[in-house]
């Protein structure tokens, strides 16, 4: 159940062009992803899950509860958006890992892959830290926006929740200017809500 008040929910719904994935759609896909990950990594333990803050927090919380394996969990910040609707093209890791990943299998949980800049920087960082493999589970994948191809180390895997249209989406952890994160669905934000900031 959403924590939004009735007034807040109504305002958020008015700000949406349309809902792309409902809570039911998301839950079903998370269960499927959790089952795949549990199967694929059953002989590759220990597994370190690294969730990208802040956008992936809701997805990560739901996904790890569907992974039926012993795991360790860490959060990391990699920023490239700020209050913009497009990636700045520069990904900055603003928090260092507090967990040892040398010779361990790592699963990165991302909310969305856009140009690939953020993920490329993060994968390189984790390889430099000594990870045995760096797999990725992204809730949304904007294939049409890709500028840097997804290149994972040998033995790594890629999991995708949904292929996302080339539009600005919010909800289920994802924001615009720190708003809409607590929506239980993923929706397309009306351009009028962000055009003034983007110009």
From TrEMBL:
<dbReference type="GO" id="GO:0032264">
    <property type="term" value="P:IMP salvage"/>
</dbReference>
<dbReference type="GO" id="GO:0032263">
    <property type="term" value="P:GMP salvage"/>
</dbReference>
<keyword id="KW-0479">Metal-binding</keyword>
<dbReference type="GO" id="GO:0000166">
    <property type="term" value="F:nucleotide binding"/>
</dbReference>
<dbReference type="InterPro" id="IPR029057">
    <property type="entry name" value="PRTase-like"/>
</dbReference>
<protein>
    <recommendedName>
        <fullName>Hypoxanthine phosphoribosyltransferase</fullName>
        <ecNumber>2.4.2.8</ecNumber>
    </recommendedName>
</protein>
<dbReference type="GO" id="GO:0004422">
    <property type="term" value="F:hypoxanthine phosphoribosyltransferase activity"/>
</dbReference>
<dbReference type="InterPro" id="IPR000836">
    <property type="entry name" value="PRTase_dom"/>
</dbReference>
<dbReference type="Pfam" id="PF00156">
    <property type="entry name" value="Pribosyltran"/>
</dbReference>
<dbReference type="GO" id="GO:0046100">
    <property type="term" value="P:hypoxanthine metabolic process"/>
</dbReference>
<dbReference type="GO" id="GO:0000287">
    <property type="term" value="F:magnesium ion binding"/>
</dbReference>
<dbReference type="GO" id="GO:0006166">
    <property type="term" value="P:purine ribonucleoside salvage"/>
</dbReference>
<keyword id="KW-0460">Magnesium</keyword>
<comment type="similarity">
    <text>Belongs to the purine/pyrimidine phosphoribosyltransferase family.</text>
</comment>
<keyword id="KW-0808">Transferase</keyword>
<dbReference type="GO" id="GO:0005829">
    <property type="term" value="C:cytosol"/>
</dbReference>
<dbReference type="InterPro" id="IPR050408">
    <property type="entry name" value="HGPRT"/>
</dbReference>
<keyword id="KW-0547">Nucleotide-binding</keyword>
<keyword id="KW-0328">Glycosyltransferase</keyword>
<dbReference type="InterPro" id="IPR005904">
    <property type="entry name" value="Hxn_phspho_trans"/>
</dbReference>
<keyword id="KW-0963">Cytoplasm</keyword>
<dbReference type="GO" id="GO:0006178">
    <property type="term" value="P:guanine salvage"/>
</dbReference>
<feature type="domain" description="Phosphoribosyltransferase">
    <location>
        <begin position="35"/>
        <end position="176"/>
    </location>
</feature>
<comment type="pathway">
    <text>Purine metabolism; IMP biosynthesis via salvage pathway; IMP from hypoxanthine: step 1/1.</text>
</comment>
<keyword id="KW-0660">Purine salvage</keyword>
């Amino acid at each position: 159940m959403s924590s939004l008040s009735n007034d807040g929910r109504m305002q958020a719904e008015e700000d949406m062009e349309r809902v792309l994935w409902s809570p039911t759609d998301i839950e079903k896909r998370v269960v499927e992803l959790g089952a795949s990950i549990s199967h694929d990594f059953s002989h590759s333990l220990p597994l370190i899950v690294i969730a990208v803050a802040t956008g992936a927090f809701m997805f990560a919380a739901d996904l790890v509860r569907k992974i039926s394996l012993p795991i360790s969990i860490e959060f990391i910040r990699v920023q490239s958006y700020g209050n913009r609707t497009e990636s700045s093209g520069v990904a900055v890791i603003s928090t260092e890992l507090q967990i040892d990943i040398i010779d361990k299998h790592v699963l990165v949980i991302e909310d969305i892959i856009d140009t690939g800049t953020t993920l490329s920087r993060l994968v390189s960082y984790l390889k430099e830290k000594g990870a045995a493999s760096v797999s990725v589970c992204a809730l949304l994948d904007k294939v049409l926006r890709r500028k840097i191809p997804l290149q994972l180390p040998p033995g790594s895997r890629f999991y995708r929740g949904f292929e996302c249209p080339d539009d600005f989406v919010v909800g289920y952890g994802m924001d615009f200017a720190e708003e809409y994160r607590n929506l239980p669905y993923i929706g397309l934000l009306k351009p009028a809500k962000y055009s003034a900031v983007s110009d």
